[in-house]
Amino acid sequence: MYAGEYGFSMNIYSLGCLPGETDDHTRRFALLIRHLRRALGTQGNLFVHYNPTFMKAQTPYEFFSNARPAEIRRKYALLRSALADCNVDFVSVIEDPMVYYQPVLALGDYNAGRVLEHLYRKPHVAESDWLKAFHELGFDDSRYFSPKDPLQTLPWEHIACTDHQRLKRRAGALARSVSENDILLYTEHSQVVPGE
After folding, report:
1. How many whole angstroms separate alpha carbon 143 and alpha carbon 54?
2. Cβ 52 vs Cβ 67: under 8 Å
3. CA–centroid distance for 124 within its chain
4. Residue 97's CB: how many other CB atoms inside 10 A?
5. pLDDT at 160
6. What's this model's pTM, rounded to 2 decimal places?
7. What is the per-residue pLDDT for 78?
8. Is the pLDDT of residue 179 over 70?
9. Going by DSSP bridges, is the β-strand pair 10-16/46-52 parallel, antiparallel, or unpaired?
10. pLDDT per residue over 131-140, tens digit each?
11. pLDDT tens digit sequence for 88-146
12. Is the Cβ–Cβ distance between 74 and 52 less than 8 Å?
């Protein structure tokens, strides 16, 4: 209300396709944005920055799955349709090829390096080029978009900048707080230390 009273615009920065996120969460987020738009009034712009969550190596989220581009685009369309009659300006990278290649780079391995080598001479690389490169090289891209088994050794575990066992315990704690469908069951594999 204060922003509206003094003519300020608002920026909301948000991430979609978090572990355990459902369509109901997206609809409730749309409702929150609608309330903010109402409180802001007609004076300022309301910018909603909405981008996908990218699970990164060397974090507890490295075991969770990244959303495939089709899924994050579906969630984005759901959010936009829920706010179609609301005066909101959307800012997003969701239509950019990075929605596909960011998970590949964030969880890179030898195959990702081979795909980069295959593509690096192209001046403009579309999402379809990434998919074609994986196909032409005979590589499966599902590892970048699937949950990881906490017993498996991940490609970057030889890097000694963090305690990988602690990350596995923290990932187990996170898994219990979100949908069990998004990450492999830790109950058989992990000993979780309370508070980590």
Report:
1. 14
2. yes
3. 24
4. 17
5. 66
6. 0.79
7. 97
8. no
9. parallel
10. 999 999 999 9
11. 999 999 999 999 999 999 888 889 999 999 999 999 999 999 999 999 999 999 989 99
12. no
Tokens of 183: 């990450």
Burial class of residue 10 (count of CB atoms within 10 Å of its CB; 0-12, 13-18, 19+): middle
Task: Read off the pLDDT of each residue in 171-176 and give the average, rounded to a whole number.
Answer: 78
**For residues 52 and 99, is the Cβ–Cβ distance under 8 A?**
yes
- Token look-up 């706010």 returns 83
Residue 51's contacts (CB-CB under 8 Å, 6 or more residues apart) are 14, 15, 16, 92, 93, 94
> 121 is written with which tokens?
């001479």
Between CA 58 and CA 72 the distance in angstroms is 23
Which amino acid is present at 80? R
* Dist CA 116 CA 101 (whole Å): 10
d(CA 42, CA 21): 31
- How far is it, in rounded angstroms, from Cα 15 to Cα 64? 15
Query: Residue 48 in 3-state DSSP?
Result: strand
CA-CA distance, 184 to 188, in Å (whole number)? 10
